[in-house]
Design a protein that fits this description.
about 300 residues, two-stranded parallel sheet, cobalamin binding, metal ion binding, 4Fe4S_Fe_S_CS
């Protein structure tokens, strides 16, 4: 067994032990195919008010600009599909936000993995990324053979679906690289047909400025009135394109206690959300990604849905 093979096997075994769904590796190099797609998306202003998407264009496409001397991108998936879901007569929260903020949960696991690599292999330099830096997570995961990018622009995996987080370790270690998988969307257009705001403007291209997740999380202004009645009761994020995807019939509940929701969140009705106090908001969403929208943002979203 070559050192590359040995090290790769070691890393993948430890990733599994840490609770990751899967782990794939790709060569740290410039993302040639993604460059024109990203440029086209930005020029069409599909990022709306997410101005940060315009920053660090080169770094988004080249991991060697993020980690000096990097040779490998280790991509990891972590399941978040819940065993129980919200009361159906309620305003909805995206399933990824039910429990503790994934940034904290995954960052800890990535740090453990990096320390393990350094302890077992030696002096390895690297950085952990959980969608808070200019890294094209889905592109790297697809290159690493962990799935293909579906028509809704999310990563999809056979037998698993798409309800998982993607994270990376970019390291200056030579590893054995995986090969991309094939696209299994076929002629299916379920996600395109179901999107309430018609944000999937063509297969594999989402206009972020029309997406319900954008309106309910990223947008700081008032939600445009032309989308009244089109948000399908989503008050934080949106799962429609994933919920209708045939591959998500295979989703299995996660086994990460930190992703379990506050029991009150699951039972709340529309009336409860309309009357929620800041104190209850702070308690239910103490460590949740929902804190990003703040109490005032959630109130704005609920009022918009009610109007």
């Amino acid at each position: 067994m070559t050192p590359k093979t040995k090290h790769t096997t070691l890393i993948k075994t430890e990733a599994k032990r840490l609770g990751f769904l899967s782990c794939g590796v790709s060569k740290a190099q410039f993302l040639e195919e993604e460059a024109p797609r990203l440029e086209k998306w930005l020029k069409a202003n599909m990022h709306g008010q997410m101005k940060y998407m315009e920053n660090h264009f080169d770094k988004r496409l080249d991991p060697t600009k993020l980690v000096e001397g990097s040779k490998s991108v280790i991509s990891l998936l972590l399941n978040y599909f819940p065993s129980e879901q919200q009361n159906p007569d309620s305003y909805k929260i995206s399933k990824y936000a039910y429990g503790t903020d994934y940034h904290f949960v995954i960052k800890d696991k990535l740090k453990s993995l990096l320390h393990f690599i350094q302890d077992e292999i030696g002096e390895v330099h690297g950085r952990a990324f959980v969608d808070s830096a200019p890294v094209l997570d889905k592109a790297w995961a697809a290159r690493s053979g962990l799935g293909w990018i579906g028509k809704h622009s999310n990563l999809l995996t056979q037998q698993v679906g798409s309800f998982y987080f993607i994270a990376e370790l970019i390291v200056d270690l030579d590893l054995e690289y995986d090969t991309p998988t094939t696209d299994h969307c076929g002629t299916c257009t379920a996600c395109i047909d179901a999107c309430p705001t018609e944000a999937i403007v063509e297969p594999y291209m989402v206009d972020g400025s029309k997406c319900i997740s954008y309106f309910t999380i990223e947008l700081k202004d008032q939600i445009p009135t032309e989308f009244r009645g089109k948000l399908d009761d989503w008050m934080f994020g949106c799962d429609v394109c994933q919920d209708v995807c045939p591959w998500n019939r295979f989703s299995k509940p996660h086994r990460e206690p930190l992703f379990d929701p506050d029991p009150q969140l699951l039972s709340m009705t529309k009336k409860d959300w309309e009357e929620i106090t800041e104190e209850v908001f702070q308690r239910i969403f103490k460590k949740s990604p929902v804190k990003r929208t703040k109490y005032s943002g959630l109130q704005r979203n609920v009022k918009f849905l009610k109007s």
